Amino acid sequence: MDGSLEDVLRQTTIFRRLSPDDRGRLASVATVRTFARGARLFSEGDPSDHLLTVINGRVKVFKTTPRGSDVILEIFGPGDPVGAVAVYESRPYPASAVALEATTCVLVPRQSFFELLETHPTMIRGLLGGLTLRLVELTNRLAELSGGRVEARMARFFLKLAADMGQPRADGTFLPLALSRQELADMIGTTIETSIRIMSRWSKDDIVRTEKDGFILVDRARLEALALT
Amino acid sequence: MDGSLEDVLRQTTIFRRLSPDDRGRLASVATVRTFARGARLFSEGDPSDHLLTVINGRVKVFKTTPRGSDVILEIFGPGDPVGAVAVYESRPYPASAVALEATTCVLVPRQSFFELLETHPTMIRGLLGGLTLRLVELTNRLAELSGGRVEARMARFFLKLAADMGQPRADGTFLPLALSRQELADMIGTTIETSIRIMSRWSKDDIVRTEKDGFILVDRARLEALALT
DNA sequence: GAGGGGGTATGACCGGCGTCATATCGACGA
DNA sequence: TCGTCGATATGACGCCGGTCATACCCCCTC
């Protein structure tokens, strides 16, 4: 079991640069836990007693606005760390996380994590890198979200998805990510009705098709034109 | 000069937890530089060869959206680190920074900074803390910006300012921060016309007054009511 | 088969706010 | 003193998109 756990750790962005020794030490204090679809990994305000890393499945990290609606901050997949920020600082989670589907995670107790940091400072450099990457992405999200037409934001969102995880296919670019209209709306900061309207229109115009397990970008040129609007 | 520079370093959020020895070492490689109002500290895409920390004055960090308008990501004052993120990762600055007024900064060359990190791992713990704090604030800004009426966002913005730096006075709470209508608009993600309209209305209704060197919250209760709208 | 719940879809309404245009005022320089 | 430029201010217009309401479909449970 420890062997596979180490393999898993090597695939995570945050731990991959560790030396085999460090990874072994980490594996010895880590545990595995599964979450059913819809289960909460943690809620905003909870004490951050564990560092979570996704092995398989998908986790949605979101924050409830002062007015009660949700904003999806991030969707984590295999290899991504969840709530690492809060753990580093020993402060309560600033957002909530739920499993979008059956999800398996590696849990590292905060205490053990800190002890490892103390004894193996080399680990910290990799963590600094991961943190800064997320900061950059968040600043981009910020610039993206404020202002602009919803349809243009949606177009840019799909183009970014395509760049991140698009798979070329005969009939277009496949995005292996099944998001509901509601989640789509939360990602780009609008309502479910508007996201449904846009997706319906795009489906009629053969720009983006919704499939069982993801989306297909059919007319990428049109999307790029929309993104500039 | 080194003596005062060390004093300055002790007041910065990012360096305050360093041991006196570490601070001394940092001071020995740091330099001081002043920027005139409107001067660029750096532009988006520039290589990040220096870590900047504000001593006095104010710096605006902003990002130009795909559509050409600006979003102010942060306004830094004395003690704040500017562009630290990019320096940690040795990647180009993800945003631009200009001085809002005459501003003095401490500059630490990236090379020297890294050498210090190598030799004194204790410094890194403090940096982790600073980074996570900014991440949390950014997620809050994200949740704040998406959706909601502009007037409500503006109200929340002023209330947050009051909590951060408000000074009680006979006629209300004074905010010693002179922001133009344009900068106000950028902070909450709207246009200059709308921010002018709201401020005009609030001025007529005696809710917030604009003064030469800041704002005065006259009717805080009304602001709090607006913030919930 | 009835009933309920969740996701998707579509129409009607209308109000906030972005856009364009214009006016005023103060600062600054020729 | 005039002209220019930037910041502030205000009106008119129009439309995107939020809100409400309803309907349909699929899956599950009883």
Low-confidence stretches of chain A: none
Mean pLDDT reading of chain A: 83
Report the biggest beta sheet of chain A as strand number plus sense, adding barrel if it closes.
Answer: 4 strands, antiparallel
Number of strands of chain A: 12
- Looking at how many chains there are and whether they match, the oligomeric state comes to homodimer
Helix coverage percent of residues of chain A? 40-55%
* Side-by-side strand order of the widest sheet of chain A: 1-8-3-6
Largest interface in this structure: A-B, 45 and 45 residues
**Euclidean distance between termini CA atoms of chain A:** 52 Å
Rg of chain A to the nearest angstrom?
A: 19 Å
Number of helices of chain A: 9
- General shape of chain A: elongated
Range of strand content of chain A: 15-25%
Succession of helices and strands of chain A: HHEEEEEEHEEHHHEEHHEEH
- Structural class determined from secondary elements of chain A: alpha+beta
Summarize the structure in words.
- The structure is a homodimer of 229-residue chains.
- Chain A has 229 residues and is α+β, with helices and mostly antiparallel strands.
- Chain A is 46% helix and 24% strand.
- Chain A has 9 helices and 12 strands.
- Chain A has helices at residues 2-11, 20-29, 84-89, 110-119, 122-145, 150-165, 181-188, 192-204, 220-228, and strands at 31-35, 40-42, 50-56, 59-64, 70-76, 81-82, 96-99, 103-109, 167-169, 172-175, 208-211, 214-217.
- In chain A, strands 1-8-3-6 form a 4-stranded antiparallel beta sheet. In chain A, strands 2-7-4-5 form a 4-stranded antiparallel beta sheet. In chain A, strands 9-10-12-11 form a 4-stranded antiparallel beta sheet.
- In chain A, a hairpin with a 2-residue loop joins strand 9 and strand 10 (172-175).
- Chain A is elongated, with a radius of gyration of 19 Å.
- The model of chain A has no long low-confidence stretch (mean pLDDT 83).
- The interface between A and B is large, with 45 and 45 residues.
- Chain A binds a DNA duplex (30 and 30 nucleotides) through helix 8.
